[in-house]
Write a structure and sequence with these properties.
- By secondary structure, the chain is of the alpha/beta class.
- It folds into three domains: about 180 residues, 3-Layer(aba) Sandwich (Rossmann fold); about 110 residues, Immunoglobulin-like (Sandwich); about 240 residues, Rossmann fold (3-Layer(aba) Sandwich).
- Helices cover about 25% and strands about 35% of the residues.
- It contains eleven helices and 29 strands.
- The strands form seven sheets. Strands 18, 19, 20, 21, 22, 23, 24 and 28 form an eight-stranded mixed beta sheet that branches.
- The longest helix is centred in the first third of the chain and has 22 residues.
- It is globular and about 80 Å long.
């Protein structure tokens, strides 16, 4: 009703302002508000006054997720139908009218929305058939574009979103239950992102305003013209994880592609066809939509895949072919890659890890001049009877380097306490005397601790062991409760605490013979206080030794944390790594590697968890160009 009484001279300004008021309110309240609910709950649509035709690439209809069931057999979960339905629903919330191929409507569209499936991947490791739940993630990518009726591309983007949850397996069946719900979450998230990007695009909003101002127009015959020719070229680079031309089972591969239109005309509906003979490369779709290419336009894309099970050494051929939807496009010849595929041998089974001691080649552009870093690594102890923690000092030293270079914290604002320089009195001085003098309400504090911890058998309270701590006495330990209270008292914006502690029960608190790992669980909630201000990334939530990761020369949790900070934790591929993304990435990587390589569990913990509306999870920890 308000829009109907606004005169046209002021409509453009108010139309744009209204959108940004809604968007600004959502940003201010962070996770408590969304233009599109991730689970199709109550929604606010844009409903731009445009009629569009939704053109789904064949990769949408044929979309499926491949995974291994509880018996190790490859299975496929078709998601084409629900993905198509979700695309239609979300597109209908952006535009006033949406046409599809099956509508039979005589309406002439004002534009076209083209959508194609990108990455479709399941991350799931089931070690054995048992009545058990296992964590799983589903990653879905979506390539989409909005093209005006005159052929001008007003907006195009690639998005990836992740659905997370647990699947259930039983001892009596190979079936995996619950994956469809996680897939639906991923579909909902990625189409929400598409809708938000389209609904807030300035060029699309301008087109909607122009259309509304001009009013509906009758269709007039358009004289046919001879389309100018387009000439498309492309180059491709094939990379594999081991950086050679020999592929092994489960090895990751990537194909980097650059497509360019060097002709005077527009290349319509360009598509890349990917075939592998024999078909042993997983995750890469057989057809990838490139979309329309204007004269001189260049598009880049990266296809990520994985080598499937290779039983015998074979010579494989990977072929890339470009196709187009119009005959006036001159296309290049196919590109072929010849590679050798081999099964893993005993000496080749271990993939060389990333050297996290070397900073990533991409420079981080994150600057945090008011942030503070405190890094503690205690692997040796004054009392010789206390078991050492391998790599603790190394973990601390490299983490301090990352906080300065990737985290953008000034070096003078990072304090590092290692081994015999990590007495309890040193920690008290840094946390309770030095730190309060460094912070203000805009500061973010990062605390990283690697070492050994003790759990009180009666309460579950956790304390850190310092260099001068003793096995029998708690006088020279520093409790996590005290750490939390110190941080809560500070006038800071938020704090990120990263803990990697090998945990054992405090001695002398239980009867002999009952000091088992199941006596009591460590208390991480800390009475539920501080969850909105402090985020805890706990590398080991149970009473056990944290795993050392020999190939990476770090603790397993620290290695994955550093690898994530180096870029691997950028789950949505937007160049910024948030604290929530970093913890989620590290958690599942540690859990997976511990089970696959050590045959035992080590389960990290993220507090507060996802979906709780905690703004601390949105704290940027790295940002790359």
């Amino acid at each position: 009703m308000i829009v109907q009484v606004i005169d046209s001279a002021h409509h453009s300004l108010l139309f744009r302002a209204a959108l940004w008021v809604v968007a600004g309110f959502c940003v201010a309240t962070l996770t408590s508000c969304s233009l599109f609910s991730s689970r199709d709950g109550a929604t606010i649509g844009y409903y731009l006054p445009l009629t569009v035709q939704l053109r789904s690439d064949p990769s949408i209809a044929g979309a499926q997720l491949t995974y291994q069931d509880a018996c190790g057999q490859r299975q496929s979960l078709p998601i084409g139908v629900p993905l198509q339905d979700t695309l239609k629903r979300k597109t209908a919330r952006v535009f006033e009218k949406v046409l599809t191929g099956d509508t039979g409507s005589p309406s002439i569209p004002d534009g076209y929305v083209d959508a194609a499936l990108g990455l479709a991947h399941v991350d799931l490791a089931i070690l054995r058939k048992a009545n058990k739940s296992y964590p799983a993630t589903v990653t879905l990518g979506l390539d989409f574009a909005y093209t005006a009726a005159d052929g001008t591309i007003l907006y195009s983007k690639k998005l990836q979103s992740i659905g997370r949850g647990e699947v259930d397996v039983t001892e009596a069946s190979c079936e995996v239950k619950g994956l469809d719900k996680i897939a639906q979450e991923a579909m909902s998230y990625v189409t929400d992102g598409m809708a938000t990007q389209l609904g807030t695009s300035n060029k699309i909003i301008d087109a909607a305003e122009a259309h509304k101002a001009d009013g509906p127009k009758a269709a007039v015959p358009v004289p046919s013209t001879v389309a100018e020719p387009a000439r498309v070229i492309f180059r491709a680079i094939f990379r594999n994880e081991n950086r050679n031309q020999v592929l092994h089972s489960d090895e990751a591969i990537a194909i980097e592609i650059e497509v360019k239109n060097e002709g005077p005309g527009t290349a319509r509906a360009v598509e890349l066809s990917v075939t592998a003979t024999p078909p042993l490369i997983e995750r890469i779709p057989s057809a990838v939509s490139v979309g329309d290419l204007q004269p001189g336009e260049v598009k880049h894309m990266t296809l990520d895949g994985k080598v499937g099970t290779v039983k015998d050494a074979v010579q494989a051929e990977l072929t890339l072919i470009l196709r187009a939807g119009s005959p006036s496009v001159q296309l290049p010849s196919a590109k072929k890659f010849l590679v050798t595929m081999k099964p893993k041998s005993a000496t080749e089974a271990v993939v060389l890890p990333v050297n996290v001691d070397q900073l990533p080649k991409r420079a981080s552009i994150l600057k945090q001049p008011k942030a503070v870093g405190i890094v503690i690594g205690v692997g040796r102890f004054r009392e010789s009877g206390i078991v050492r923690v391998k790599y603790a000092a190394r973990d601390a030293e490299v983490m301090a380097t990352y906080l300065k270079s990737i985290g953008g914290i000034p070096p003078r604002r990072v304090r590092t306490l290692v081994d015999n320089h990590a007495l309890k009195s040193d920690l008290v001085e840094v946390l309770e005397e030095w730190l309060p003098k460094q912070v203000d309400p805009t500061s973010v504090v990062y605390v990283s601790v690697t070492g050994r911890g003790v759990v009180e058998a009666t309460t579950g309270a956790v304390s850190m062991m310092m260099f001068d701590s003793t096995a029998r006495s708690g006088a020279r330990r520093y409790s996590l409760r005290r750490l939390q209270e110190s941080l809560e008292k500070l006038p800071i914006q938020r704090a990120i605490v990263m803990l990697d502690l090998s945990l054992e029960l405090a001695p002398g608190k239980v009867a002999p013979g009952k000091e088992t790992a199941g006596t009591i669980a460590p208390l991480w909630e800390q009475d539920g206080r501080g969850n909105e201000k402090i985020m805890w990334m706990v590398g080991n939530r149970g009473l056990q030794e944290s795993h050392s990761y020999g190939p990476g020369r770090h603790g397993l949790f620290a290695y994955q944390l550093l690898k994530g900070l180096g870029g691997a934790a950028d789950l949505d591929k937007n160049g910024t790594i948030l604290a929530g993304e970093l913890c989620t990435y590290t958690k599942w990587q540690v859990f997976k590697v511990a089970q696959e390589q050590y045959g035992s569990e080590q389960e990290p913990l993220c507090l507060p968890g996802p979906g709780q509306g905690a703004s601390v999870r949105l704290q940027p920890v790295a940002r790359f160009k």
